[in-house]
Design brief:
Blueprint lengths: L1 E2 H5 L5 E6 L12 H6 L6 H4 L3 H14 L5 E6 L7 H14 L6 E6 L4 H7 L1 H5 L3 E5 L4 H7 L5 H14 L3 E8 L5 H13 L5 E6 L9 H24 L7 H12 L1 E2 L12 E5 L2 E3 L20 H13 L2 H4 L8 H4 L4 H6 L1 H32 L4 H10 L8
Parallel strand pairs: 1-8, 2-3, 2-9, 3-4, 4-5, 5-6, 6-7
Antiparallel strand pairs: 9-10
Helix pairs in contact: 11-17, 12-17, 12-18
């Protein structure tokens, strides 16, 4: 099998996640920031600082990235609470590094899109991807995305579509009490209305294991089968349904690709997080591993200091038996965040990942035939669909 980095070469993107604020206008169940950093009041104010230092970190990273694609993702909190600050970063990048052609991504809950559009349409017209958190239909979404208004979000998406041609990715975070099917059905409705282009989901990171795991596993497996059926039915009609994890998984299976890294590639230093004037390989791990950099010094030395720490960080792969796992080619060892917060839950997710990969393997040849019959190549699965998973997270 060929690794993803060998396959993509310089097309393997470098991704900068820039946290522009710790504040948020929602109170979602299971917020990752609150899981890692505690109550929002204890960290939000600190995250507002460091604009000039953040600029220094961006300048350092961009100058280091000589080749390849660069994506800058605006992250929070809710970035649109401080849209003026987002615009300052956007203008800095365009003025100082126009030759890099950096692509911009915005993570948002969608509640303030209309106000931001009124302030500056140009930003949204030049956006590469809008990633919006929608956790199903109105009832389910508002139950778990507390403090948001589903109808307002959909109205804002409609307004966005009238102003920008940027692609929209609907991202659902699945909790034990939620229905993945409900999320998929909402996505299909939004897609029919041309409001969303791609669907991605993952399971929530949490401190405690799933209480009734076998019952959850049974339900999740049934919902996955529902998604696979939809995917195959769509292919039989000559259309690739943009369920991004499936597009990536079938591509890996049929092309003979293995991830060759954890989900985010933290041990390869492929993604960088900028927060409060500091640079990290992953802020979701906390602030334990910081990359110390000096704009005037050797550009490689800051990374040498953390490489050994990161390799130690992912050494759990040995105790988890990743090298012998039939899903490792796809999973890559998942992500160290959940290993840190709840190893038992992580092992449960290993089982769910193997379930999904097993289902895909049983359908792979049928998918291959349907692709050929519809006139698609394997590359049509990956571009643009599977490739976008690099900008997201790990599944399940």
């Amino acid at each position: 099998m060929i690794t993803l980095s060998e396959l993509l070469g310089i097309e393997f993107p470098t991704i900068f996640h820039l946290t522009v604020t710790g504040r948020c206008n929602a109170n979602c169940v299971g917020c990752i920031n609150s899981l890692i950093y505690g109550e929002r009041g204890s960290f939000a104010e600190k995250w507002e600082d460091g604009f000039e230092k953040n600029i220094s970190a961006l300048r350092f990273l961009i100058k280091k990235s000589k080749n390849g694609r660069i994506f800058l993702s605006f992250y929070g909190g809710e970035p649109l609470l401080v849209f003026d600050k987002v615009l300052k970063y956007y203008q800095f990048i365009n003025q100082e590094f126009p030759e890099k052609k950096i692509k911009f991504v915005l993570f948002t809950n969608g509640m303030l899109l209309h106000k931001a559009l009124q302030k500056n349409e140009e930003f949204f017209k030049n956006l590469e991807l809008l990633i919006i958190s929608i956790d199903g239909k109105k009832e389910q979404h508002e139950r778990f995305r507390r403090g948001t208004d589903f109808d307002q979000i959909i109205a804002n998406l409609s307004l966005f579509r009238n102003k920008s041609k940027a692609k929209v990715l609907m991202w659902s975070t699945i909790r034990e009490e939620m229905s993945l099917k409900d999320c998929v059905e909402e996505f299909l409705l939004l897609r029919e209305e041309a409001l969303c282009d791609y669907f991605f989901w993952h399971l929530i990171e949490a401190e405690k294991p799933i209480r009734n795991f076998q019952e959850f596993r049974r339900k999740y497996l049934a919902e996955l089968k529902f998604l696979f059926d939809l995917f195959e039915t769509s292919l039989s009609r000559g259309e690739i349904l943009p369920f991004l994890p499936f597009c990536e998984l079938f591509y890996f299976l049929l092309k003979g690709v293995k991830r060759g890294q954890t989900g985010c590639g933290i041990e390869k230093l492929r993604n960088f997080d900028i927060l409060g004037g500091k640079l990290f390989p992953c802020v979701d791990l906390g602030e334990e591993i910081e990359i110390k950099f000096n704009l005037e010094g050797d550009r490689e030395k800051p990374f040498e200091g953390v490489k050994k720490e990161l390799l130690n960080l992912v050494s759990y792969k040995f105790s988890f038996g990743c090298n012998q796992c039939e899903a490792e080619f796809y999973c890559g060892g998942r992500c160290p965040v959940l290993i840190k917060t709840s190893p038992e839950r992580a092992r449960q997710y290993c089982e769910l990942t193997k379930d999904m990969v097993g289902l895909a393997k049983s359908r792979a040849e049928a998918v291959r035939m349907l692709l050929e019959r519809a006139g698609f190549s394997l590359e049509d699965l990956y571009y643009p669909y599977g490739y976008i998973v690099l900008l997201t997270d790990v599944v399940p």
